[in-house]
Amino acid sequence: MQTRLVLLLLALAPVVLAKKFKEEEKPAWAKKDIRDYSEADLERLLDQWEEDEEPLEDDELPEHLRPQPKLDLSNLDSKSPEDLLKVSKKGRTLMTFVSVTGNPTREESDTITKLWQTSLWNNHIQAERYMVDDNRAIFLFKDGTQAWDAKDFLIEQERCKGVTIENKEYPGVNAKKDEL
Fold it and tell me: Which ranges form a coiled coil (predicted)?
C-alpha cells in the first residue's frame, strides 16, 4: 500500500511542480505573436535556448571558429614557399581552378573533370567538383594540403591546361605554350 502511495506521489510530482507562466508574469517580448518578433527578440530566444548548452568540440565548430593548427616549421625547407603554404592550409578548405585544353563543350569538360575527380577519390584525395565555365572547374578540398597532391596528378593529365592554387598558376605538362 505504501509503495503504491509513493509511486502515485512520484507520478504526480512532475505535474504539480511544472511551472507555466501566467500571462501577466511573462516578459513583454514573450507575449508577442512569433510573427511579430524582432531580430533582438529572436536573438534573446536563441540565447535562452543555448543557455545550458555545452560548448562544441573543436572539430564540430564551423571552420572560421576553429583554432589554427600549430605549424611545425622545423621540418620545412625555408627555400620552398610552396611547402610553407601547403602546411598552412592543413585542415582548411581550399579551392583550386582547373582548366581543360582545347575548346571543349561543357559536357566534354564535365566528363573529363569527373574522371579526374574519380581518380583523385581512388587515391584518397577528397575533392568536390563544380563546373564554372565550358572549360573550367573548381575542385574544392576540405583539407587544403591535398590540393598540392591533386595538382601534381592533374598537371600530368593529357587534357589539363593548368591548375590555379592560391592565385599561382601551374601549367599542365601537355598544354601547348600558345594556350597558356
Answer: none
